[in-house]
Fold:
Amino acid sequence: MRTLVLNAGYEPLAIVSFKRALVLVMNEKASVIESVIGDPVWTTRAVYERPAVILLTRYVRIPQARRVPVTRRGVLRRDNHRCGYCAKPASTIDHVLPRSRGGQDSWENLVACCLRCNNTKSDRTPQEMGWELRMAPRAPHGAAWTVRGTERGDPQWAPYLGLAA
Structure:
């Protein structure tokens, strides 16, 4: 059982175990926003519902440089496993500006690509091939990318994750 932790400004911060969330609530560092009905936790002093979403009582400052690292899996996920050139299912990634010509491993230079397009394009740019990208590649943003574990989230989290997007 996992709990979504929101900053005092309702910004998603992390996903923690319900035990850690309960400790934060018991120490009055957080309050319960959403809870799981049924199966409460009994303590010597009180009965607590299992928290699904908690809100910190004090604002925690987060550095703005919270960048998502570039990975093959991340590029495929960002592009929905669809080729950036032909929209067929993608299984690999491609450098828009090839590495041999100074292309970097960055979110803005990588796209998901099918094997056929990747082999056809080879060491050329899309302009040289007469191809167009379906969308401009950019770094992903939003709570689904900065808070790990939200892809297998609880349905109760959806309103709070949607606020951050």
User: Anything to note?
Assistant: The chain has a mean pLDDT of 86. Residues 37 and 49 are 7 Å apart (CA to CA).
